[in-house]
Structure formats: C-alpha cells, structure tokens
C-alpha cells in the first residue's frame, strides 16, 4: 500500500509534469516570438495563441511550490533558501514576462513593443533553463549539512552537468512550443514553425542523449534505479522518434503529444531517480532529504490528500474545457487581444 | 548589515507593494461582475461597455497583482526558511489550498473572460467573471487563514520541535480569521468602488462621457458606502478579538503603558516616548476605549508594562513590546481614512438621492478624486498595524521573527534581491500608472486598437452580423 509520503511525492511529480507540459509549450512559444516571428503581427499571433492559457499554466508551478511547502516543508525550506539567487532571477523573469503580455499591446509604439518583446523572450528562455539547472542539481547532489541547510557556492549550482540539464530543458520546451504553434496557427507561420521544429529535432536528440549519458556518469542515481531509468529512457526514445514520425506525416496533434510525453518521462525520470530522496547531499548521504525526514506529519498529509483529491478533478475539468473553447486556430485576421 | 533587518525590509516592501493591487483586484472584479450582470439582465449595451472599460483597467492591475504574488509564495522559503520548517506543517496547507482552489480558478476563468466575449454565450461569459470574483475572494480566505494562524495560533501541537497540525477545522474556524477575512474583503470592495467613484468623478469634472460615468458612479457609490461602513463594523469586532488574543498589540496601538483605569478613555493623539515608556502629552475621549474593547461603557484594558512583566514570566527574558509609535499611528491613520470614506460615500449617496448629480458638483467631485487614495492609506496602515503590532513574534507566542530568518542566506544575497525587486517594482508602478492614465483619457468609447489592421472573420459572429 502506498504511504501518504509516497503519494505526495508522486503528486508533486504530477504537478511538475503538468507545469512543464503546459507552461513548457508557452515558454517555447515565448521563445518563438524572438526566433520565428518576422514582424509585429506574427508576434501578436504567437502571443494570442497562448493568450488564454499561459496564466493558468503558470499556476501549476505555484501549486507545485505550495504542495512542497505543505507536504515537505523541509524540502521547501532547503531548496528555496539554498537556491536563493537563481530563484530571484527566475522570479524577475516571470514578473517581466507576465506583465509584458498585458502591457505590450497597450501602446502603439515600436520602441515600447520592442522593450516588452525582449521581456517576453528572455522571460520565456530563462525559467526553463534555471529550472533545468535546479533539477539537475537535485540529482547530482548539493552541499546540504546535518541541519538540512544548503550552503552552495556558484559552482555547486552551476557546473557542466547542470548546464547540460538547463540547456536540454530549454530546447525541449522550445520544440514543444513550436509544435504548439503548428497546432494553433495557419499559413506561412505554421509552415515555418513545422520546418524549424523538424530542424530542431537533431540538436534536441543530441542533447537528450548527452543528458542521459551525463546523468549516468555524473550522478549515482543509476545505481539504485538503473532498471527503471533504462525503461524510462527507452520509452523516451520511442516517444521522441514518434514525434519526428508524426511531424513528417503532418499529424501535428500527435507530434505535440509525443514531445509532451518526452517531457513527462523526463520528469518521471528525475523523480524516480531521486526516490526516496527529494534532495541529495554531496557532503554525506546521511544528510539526504527524503520523503520522510522532509515531510509534514501524518495528519497534515491526510488533510491535504483529501483536499487535493477532491479539487484536482475540477481543476483538470475546467482547464480542459478552456482549451476546448479556444480550439480554433489563431491567424492574422482573428481578433487579437494582446 | 544584519540579514534579519534586510529580510524584514524586503518582506515589508514586497508585501506592501503586492497589497496595493490585491484589494483593487478583488474590488474591481466584483464591480465588473455586477455591471456585466446588469448587462445580461437588462440587455443594455452601456453596461457591457462599462464592464469592458473598467475591465481594461482591471486587467492591467491584475497582471501586476499576479506577478508580484508569485514572489510572496516563494519568499517564505527563500528568506524565512527556519519559519517554514517550524510551521510548514500547518502554514503550508492553506497556501497550497489557495493555489489549488483559488489561483487555478481565477487564472483559467480570467483567460476565458478576456478571450471569450465572442466565443461564449452571454450567461456563460457572465459566469466566468463571477467565478473570477469568487476565486479572488477564496484566495483571500486561504491566505488570511494562514495569517490568522500567525496572529492567533490554533489547531496544532508542538512535536519534535515544530508545530504540527492536529485540527484542520480549528484552523478554518479560527475566530481571528472570521473577523480578519470580512474586514479585509469588505475593505477590498471599498477600494474597488472608491476607485470607480474617483475616476468617474474626474471624467465628470472634465465633462467627458457624462452619462456613462454618472451611471458608473451610481453603482459604485452604493457599494462604496455599504462596504466601508461594514468594514468599520468588522474592524470593531476585530479590536474586541484583539483584546482577548493579542492584548499587547491593543495596548501598543493605544500607546497605553500603565493600566487604563475603568472606564477606559480613548487616546486621540499622544507624544509617545518608547525610551522612558511614557507619553509626554495626550488627548483623551472618556469611555471610548472601553466601548472599543468590550462594546460597553466600562471595563479596564491592560497596559504594556503589565503585559511585559506577564510575558517575561511566561516566555523568558526579552522585549515583548512592539514598535509602539508605528502601531499607534498606523491605527489612527487607518481609522481616520476609514471614517472619511464613510462620510464621502454617504454624502455622494445623499447627492444622488436628491438628484443633484445631473450637473457637476465640482467641490464634491474633486473630493472623490482625492478619495481614491483613502482606501490605499487605510489598507496599508491597517496591515502595518497588524504586522508590526505582532512583533517580536512571527507566530504569536511560539516563534520570534529573529528565529524565523534563513540562516544560510547572506546579507549580500539579500541586498541584491532587495535592489532587484525594488527596481522592477518601481518600473511596474510607473508603467501601470502611465497605462491607467492613458486608458482613462481614451474613455470607454475609444476605438479598440487591438482590432486594428484586420477585417472581420467572415465566418465569425461579428462577420455574420456585418454581412446580414
């Protein structure tokens, strides 16, 4: 029988999957505004393609943060104070990005729009990169002492392994976003998005392979969970190949689903690799934060389980409904809000 | 510099800034929902224009509120990690529920409302804005449940050196929550409605779209009067609760060092000297403090010196007296602003009833323009009193602020983040005000530039009407 600690570990993983799957594509579309779009109208088409969704997608991150606070307060405290400076940068990026969507269309002036376009681009590029660095750090291990305090220097947080992780997550989100663009637009921009997505599959394949090998070399999570991780890697490879196949057959929805599957499998890989730890100490494995020593009490977990199980179906229901309401493609002649 | 001081500065600065936008959002979205309801019920286009015009202002404001809110959630772990470890079991739950129950609701239905005017039926679209309104209020409920625990901890036991929840319903039934929540939400409704009154007054002064703004004013002034009056009532309830649960905060907000005497008089103004622990000079109104504290004309209130001695015995050596002058004056500023709000709104309603609004009453309209600032003053000083008055505690009686701070975050990191956040918040404030002024100047019947440079979709609803 699943313990509540295990259940909450899984729930946190589910929230991060939701976050990277959903906000992953709107980060990708945000990056595409700086790379794919040729002019202001195309940028507006891209922004409107994610317009009704991005805010709701971001809540998945807030909920993941809240869930960690409630279910694993020591994990929350160690991670958020230990990763202080990267998180400040992450917050600045999310703040700039969030208001930029709302502000950019309010004044008809080129310099005004360009300023906010830069915010959207950087604000969409930095968060997946930083979160990739943070998650890679979890697996590689961080200097966490006996009091559960993480006292990390710059190179504990940023090193070749975590950089590989950060870049891979960023490129993965970018391709995922391009495929969302293919789904939500039409005409010239759609064709270019499809073409660029195809080209990006090769560097993405190389990065994914590199991450897999680097994880094998730089971390010891394969020792405990080698079999599970190998199966996940194979499934990931299959999903990736299918994404390429569907893309070439113009089965866009399926292709998008497959990059989503790669994201989901990657997150499952991170969490399966960590289990039963939530953060690994590079000082002494005795100082690892686990789903037990980092967790709330049984009563608290029970209450939170009841709350989560009764609320999540509603959240999923109306979020899916909102995607259904806005299933029509956005083009230059549609009503563009932003 | 001391990381504790820096962490407190950052928390105060980012929280006060965030709370400029939250009440405005809660209040405005409620007003917009009321306007759209009138549109759906009465079918008049003018109410739709109203909802859209105030909606534009709301969206600019909402965006800033949302993005500054993300920091609020992360900050507990970043700057106050020992606090998070100690109370995460109890305090984390309402925060997680806030995200799960409220943030998803408001953000998803906000997207549906903004983009759904042509895609959803009138009634479903109306439901969306009411769900956003419900979501913002629900968000206030859960965050205040967390705050109420800090003011008056209930539903927990201390195990292994930390607070663990043992009664979730006690947390929700916390008496503190049920005086704090209505007071805060009604204050938010007052903020939103005073804003609409003030901007409408400005446009009426300028004689632009007079009928439109007269109507907006009318709807808003009714809400303004009832919500500011009810805010005061619940404020009174809260004061009585305070005497029972946090007598030190009460004593500090009265500048009361010794015993009050029975019946207790209320101090209007005083020159407080925290060093000598006495007031150089004060003006008092007899009986009023007894009434504030107990709703009757007798009863004694404990002073700070007596409470300090009690707390020393209970919690050990230490200074348990909060910053007295800040607490004292912020309370008075809040009460003064609140009273003016009731007077301003009541006079507006009187003018309305006497049908004197058809021609601009310049003096009053100018007053209402100034009136926009009153709820902000009241909201901010109210929170300053609440949070400063609780010092030196983070969780009253359980954990001090000094013990709450992250031990592994350096002054340098804090300085960097304070400068970065203050800089970006300043830019946000400037841009927001700039955009607001722009939207207000354009007025409700400005051509919507977001529809520029395109023809109507021939298969869409609009196109159909355009052709037929």
From TrEMBL, chain A:
Q: Where in the cell is it found?
A: Cell membrane
Transmembrane ranges, per UniProt, are: 6-37, 83-103, 115-138, 158-179, 200-218, 224-247, 254-275, 303-326
The keyword Heme is assigned to this record: yes
**Membrane topology annotation:** Multi-pass membrane protein
Question: Keywords of this protein's UniProt record, alphabetized?
Answer: Cell membrane, Electron transport, Heme, Iron, Membrane, Metal-binding, Transmembrane, Transmembrane helix, Transport
User: This protein's superkingdom?
Assistant: Bacteria
Please give the family membership noted in the entry.
Belongs to the cytochrome ubiquinol oxidase subunit 2 family.
> What name appears for this protein in its UniProt entry?
Cytochrome D ubiquinol oxidase subunit II
Origin organism of this chain? Paenibacillus physcomitrellae
Q: What is the lineage of its organism?
A: Bacteria, Bacillati, Bacillota, Bacilli, Bacillales
Automatic annotation (TrEMBL), chain B:
Annotated InterPro entries: Cyt-d_ubiquinol_oxidase_su_1
Keyword Iron, does the record have it?
yes
- Listed Pfam families: Cyt_bd_oxida_I
Full protein name: Cytochrome ubiquinol oxidase subunit I
Q: Which organism is it from?
A: Paenibacillus physcomitrellae
Instruction: Report the principal subcellular site.
Output: membrane
Q: Which UniProt keywords apply?
A: Cell membrane, Electron transport, Heme, Iron, Membrane, Metal-binding, Transmembrane, Transmembrane helix, Transport
Q: Extract the ranges annotated as region (Disordered).
A: 446-468
């Amino acid at each position: 029988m699943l313990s509540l600690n295990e259940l909450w570990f899984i729930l946190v993983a589910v929230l991060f999957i939701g976050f990277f799957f959903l906000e992953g594509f709107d980060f990708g579309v945000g990056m595409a505004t700086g790379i794919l779009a040729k002019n202001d109208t195309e940028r507006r088409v891209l922004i409107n393609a994610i317009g009704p969704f991005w805010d709701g997608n971001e809540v998945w991150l807030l909920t993941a943060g809240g869930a960690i606070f409630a279910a694993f307060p020591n994990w929350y405290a160690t991670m958020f104070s230990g990763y202080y400076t990267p998180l400040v940068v992450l917050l600045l990026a999310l703040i700039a990005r969030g208001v930029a969507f709302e502000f950019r269309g309010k004044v008809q002036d080129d310099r005004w729009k360009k300023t906010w376009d830069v915010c959207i681009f950087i604000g969409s590029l930095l968060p997946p990169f930083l979160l990739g660095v943070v998650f890679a750090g979890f697996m590689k291990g961080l200097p966490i002492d006996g009091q559960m305090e993480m006292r990390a220097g710059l190179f504990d947080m940023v090193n070749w392994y975590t950089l590989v992780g950060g870049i891979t997550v960023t490129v993965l989100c970018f391709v995922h976003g391009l495929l969302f663009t293919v789904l939500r637009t039409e005409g010239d921009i759609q064709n270019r998005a499809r073409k660029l997505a195809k080209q990006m599959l090769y560097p993405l394949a190389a990065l994914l392979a590199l991450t897999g090998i680097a994880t094998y070399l730089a971390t010891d999570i394969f020792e405990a969970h080698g079999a599970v991780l190998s199966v996940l890697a194979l499934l990931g490879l299959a999903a990736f190949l299918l994404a390429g196949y569907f893309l070439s057959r113009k089965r866009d929805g399926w292709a998008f689903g497959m990059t989503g599957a790669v994201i989901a499998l990657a997150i499952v890989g991170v969490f399966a690799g960590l289990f039963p730890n939530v953060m690994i100490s590079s000082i002494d494995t005795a100082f690892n934060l686990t789903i037990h020593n980092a967790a709330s009490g049984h009563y608290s977990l029970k209450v939170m389980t009841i709350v989560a199980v009764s609320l999540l179906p509603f959240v999923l229901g109306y979020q899916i409904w909102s995607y259904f309401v806005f299933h029509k493609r956005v083009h230059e002649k549609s009503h563009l809000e932003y | 510099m001391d990381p504790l001081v820096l962490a407190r500065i950052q928390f105060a600065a980012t929280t006060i800034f965030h709370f400029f936008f939250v009440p405005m959002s809660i209040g405005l979205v409620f007003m917009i929902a009321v306007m759209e309801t009138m549109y759906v019920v009465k079918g008049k286009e003018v109410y739709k224009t109203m909802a859209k015009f105030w909606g534009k202002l709301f969206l600019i404001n909402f965006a800033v509120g949302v993005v500054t809110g993300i920091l609020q959630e992360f900050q507990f772990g970043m700057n106050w990690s020992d606090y998070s470890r100690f109370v995460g079991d109890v305090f984390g739950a309402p925060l997680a529920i806030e995200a799960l129950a409220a943030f998803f609701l408001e953000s998803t239905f906000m997207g549906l409302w903004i983009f759904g005017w042509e895609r959803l039926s009138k009634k479903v679209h109306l439901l969306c804005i009411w769900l956003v309104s419900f979501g913002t209020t629900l968000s206030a409920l859960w965050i205040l449940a967390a705050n109420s625990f800090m003011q008056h901890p209930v539903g927990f036991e201390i195990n292994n050196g930390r607070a663990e929840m043992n009664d979730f319903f006690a947390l929700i039934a916390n008496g503190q929550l049920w005086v704090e929540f209505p007071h805060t939400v009604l204050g938010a409704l007052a903020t939103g409605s005073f804003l609409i009154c003030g901007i409408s007054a400005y446009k009426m002064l300028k004689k632009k779209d007079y009928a439109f703004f007269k109507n907006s004013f009318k709807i808003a002034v009714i809400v303004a009067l009832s919500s500011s009056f009810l805010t005061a009532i619940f404020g009174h309830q809260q004061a009585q609760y305070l005497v029972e649960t946090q007598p030190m905060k009460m004593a500090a907000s009265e500048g009361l060092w010794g015993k009050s005497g029975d019946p207790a008089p209320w101090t209007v103004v005083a020159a407080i000297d925290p060093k000598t622990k006495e007031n150089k000079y004060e003006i008092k109104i007899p009986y009023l403090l007894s009434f504030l504290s107990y709703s009757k004309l007798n009863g004694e209130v404990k002073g700070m010196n007596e409470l300090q001695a009690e707390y020393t015995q209970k919690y050990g050596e230490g200074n348990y007296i909060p910053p007295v002058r800040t607490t004292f004056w912020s309370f008075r500023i809040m009460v003064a602003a609140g009273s003016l709000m009731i007077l301003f709104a009541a006079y507006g309603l009187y003018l309305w009833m006497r049908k004197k609004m058809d021609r601009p009453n310049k003096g009053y309209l100018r007053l209402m323009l100034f009136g926009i600032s009153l709820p902000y003053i009241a909201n901010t000083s109210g929170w300053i009193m609440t949070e400063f008055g609780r010092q030196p505690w983070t969780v009253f009686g359980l954990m001090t602020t000094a013990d709450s701070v992250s031990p592994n975050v350096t002054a340098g990191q804090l300085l960097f983040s304070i400068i970065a956040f203050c800089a970006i918040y300043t830019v946000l404030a400037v841009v927001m005000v700039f955009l607001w002024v722009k939207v207000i100047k354009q007025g409700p019947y400005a051509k919507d530039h977001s529809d520029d440079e395109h023809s109507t979709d021939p298969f869409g609803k609009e196109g159909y009407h355009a052709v037929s």
